[in-house]
Amino acid sequence: MKQSEVPQDQLAYYGDARRAVYAVDDSGHYTTVASTGWSAEAQVNADAVAEFERLAQEARTRVEQGRSSPLDYHMYARRMDLPMLAQSSGIWRWRVRRHLRPQVFQRLPERLLARYAEALGLSIAALKELP
Amino acid sequence: MIVENFRHRHAGHCESGVTSSLLGHYGLELSEPMALGLSASLTFAHIPFVKVGGLPLTAYRMPPGSIYKGLRKPLGLRMAQQRFRDPDEAMRALDAELAAGRPLGLQTSVYWLPYLPAEMRFHFNAHNIIVFGKDGDDYLVSDPVFDQPQRCPAADLRKARFARGVFAPRGLQYQPQHFERDFDLDAAVRRAIAKTWKMMLYAPVPMVGVGAIRRLAQRIEAFDRKLPDVRLQRLFIGNIVRMQEEIGTGGGGFRFMYSAFLQEAGEKLSQPALLDASTRMTAAGDQWRQFALLGAQFSRKKDITLQQIAEALRTVAQTERAVYLQLKDWSKGRAPADGAQAA
Question: Are residues A110 and A65 in the same domain?
């Protein structure tokens, strides 16, 4: 990639930040160029973000219909999935899956709620409801 | 408190950037491409049965930690590494080092660092940063992927250092303890390059190396049968591109960085074969970008087919194979080029 070919697509989420990209200058030597981002990168990134938002929205509907506990929503809202939540809270997957049921979640002891709250970076009160 | 003489450097990738920056501070000027090249950390791996967020793990470099660990032999580099059970103790240890005027490398999660834009914050635990000061309740952070130093509140840094899950940092902090100032560059370059081509051409497992790029191409071609849902296809391909282009991981970026390494090594050792290989590796990087472009537009533009994407990957595989064959010839002291051309 030549210095002049380094993408400068002014990605909004970069803000003032720049990214260092290795490219060759006119004499064929490598230097780093500060880039404002590449639209291709932004596109795939937006896809990944949108996928989590979709999952969170679906979870929200389930919670509102009483088919899931709020934990379901918070998990996806924090860009996690079930294996990841299990790992970050240190609670076995089958237990996490069970805790997604509203009836079970309601009866959870503070001790377990605190572990979920810590893993998700929420307060226990916030964990119990939808934002 | 602040480490006065610390200079923030902008880098293409977090771990190589942190390594080069820390070494620079402690008295050894080693460019970022050199850190990547000498540690032989360039690779390609696609591991279908290890899922990250439900998608197969795709990596363009060796696992976290391998850059500074890979410099152990060539530079005699010893990193003093410390992990912690207790977060409070970890933060105290950090403060103590800063008070003594020693900046530290930290492994953190990406998700819990507030200065990163929300769009980039995913649960990835092997980010590397340098902390070089504390101002009130904020730590002064030199994150090599940013062009300016950042500030991070203590509570957030603490959370980021103790995120759990894959690659859990467990508060890892490190700083160079010992290294050779006058290391043998020629020997180091030869050893590292041999390691890289051996891995890329003759890895004993099919998930690693040039063959893995081909297998990935095959897999993408078979999507019509194996993964008919276009949405999932797009996520799968998007994930590969993301691993390639996102901040913190890089990919096309690693190829360019490796070219820069070959160039620097070729000039310092006056080895024209390495300069030639550098030019070819640049071409491979450009082809990776071409693939990323196709991948990003897939299912947005009608005229992009899975075959085209697979073909783009095969082109990359072919170019990279030629580079590694050329490097192999160089290592073996054979006449360059013709072996590589036959690829």
Answer: yes
User: Nearest by CB to A30, which of B112, B260, B292?
Assistant: B260
pLDDT (0 to 100) of residue B336? 57
The band of B247, judged by pLDDT with boundaries at 50, 70 and 90, is low
- Same structural domain, A75 and A33: no
Average pLDDT on B227-245 reads: 87
Cross-chain residue pair A48–B235, CB shorter than 8 Å: yes
Question: Residue A13: its pLDDT value, please?
Answer: 85
Contact B257 A22 (CB under 8 A): yes
Say yes or no: A120 and A91 in one domain.
Answer: yes
Q: Which domain holds residue A9?
A: 3-37
Instruction: List residues bridging with B325 in a β-sheet.
Output: none
pTM for this model (two decimals): 0.92
User: CA B215 → CA B207, B228, B310, distances in Å?
Assistant: 8, 19, 10
The answer to whether A3 and A33 have CB atoms below 8 angstroms apart is yes
Domain membership flag for residue A43: no
One domain for residues A56 and A106? yes
- B341 pLDDT band, cuts 50/70/90, is very low
- Name, in order, each residue with C-beta under 8 angstroms of A125's C-beta and a sequence gap of 6 or more: none
Query: From the CA of A13, how many Å to the nearest CA of chain B?
Result: 6
ipTM for this prediction? 0.90
B311 CB-contact burial (10 Å; exposed 0-12 / middle 13-18 / buried 19+)? middle
Does B50 map to a domain?
no
| Surface of B (196-255) touching A: CB under 8 A | 234-235, 238-239, 241-242, 245-247, 253
Residue B327: give the domain boundaries.
Answer: 185-341
Instruction: Please name the residue of chain B whose CA is at the shortest distance from the CA of residue A18.
Output: B147
Average pLDDT value for residue range B293-304: 84
Residues B193 and B141 in one domain: no
